[in-house]
Amino acid sequence: MRVSRIQAAENRQAVINVASRLFREHGFDGIGLKDLMEGAGLTQGAFYKQFASKEDLAVEASRRALESASRRWSDAAAENPSDPLGEVIAFYLSADHCEEKMDGCPIVALGSDAARQGPDVKAAFEAGIKAHLEVLGHFIADTPGEESGRKAMAILSTMVGAVMLSRVVNDPELAKAVLDAATRQVRETFAA
């Protein structure tokens, strides 16, 4: 039975959505096409009707995950317009966010994997990182030009590193201490 163009487009979006979550949980190489397609409710045979390669899917899934992450930052900031950075810090450096393997930060979940991928996956991550830096830049807009960009980079680097470190340790107290230290450091960087 042939699938309509509308259904084919919906299927493609479903695969991208599922892959953006499953790649964050398992890594790009930690899950096969069969499991990705099953997760979307489709057969493996349908994959090549939708995508040229697994890397093609990795690019699309990375974009989707990074766009979702940027939206989450904007949504968090909207919760407290008088302190948007504080709200993003509270959300991002929380134990709950650190436990979100499938929906958490794609930079943390896939950053080291992305570094080993082709230029198209790296380009998707670069665009996502720039979007995060832009959001942070809006929060610290009163800082003069180059200083604002440097602060945004320091804040993003600190937060991403802290979430990554908190995820790789077994000791919950150490994980919390890392997140708390990063929270203090980010606030000090912003205030400086």
TrEMBL record:
<dbReference type="InterPro" id="IPR036271">
    <property type="entry name" value="Tet_transcr_reg_TetR-rel_C_sf"/>
</dbReference>
<dbReference type="Pfam" id="PF00440">
    <property type="entry name" value="TetR_N"/>
</dbReference>
<protein>
    <submittedName>
        <fullName>TetR/AcrR family transcriptional regulator</fullName>
    </submittedName>
</protein>
<dbReference type="InterPro" id="IPR009057">
    <property type="entry name" value="Homeodomain-like_sf"/>
</dbReference>
<keyword id="KW-0238">DNA-binding</keyword>
<feature type="domain" description="HTH tetR-type">
    <location>
        <begin position="9"/>
        <end position="69"/>
    </location>
</feature>
<keyword id="KW-0804">Transcription</keyword>
<feature type="DNA-binding region" description="H-T-H motif">
    <location>
        <begin position="32"/>
        <end position="51"/>
    </location>
</feature>
<keyword id="KW-0805">Transcription regulation</keyword>
<dbReference type="GO" id="GO:0003677">
    <property type="term" value="F:DNA binding"/>
</dbReference>
<dbReference type="InterPro" id="IPR001647">
    <property type="entry name" value="HTH_TetR"/>
</dbReference>
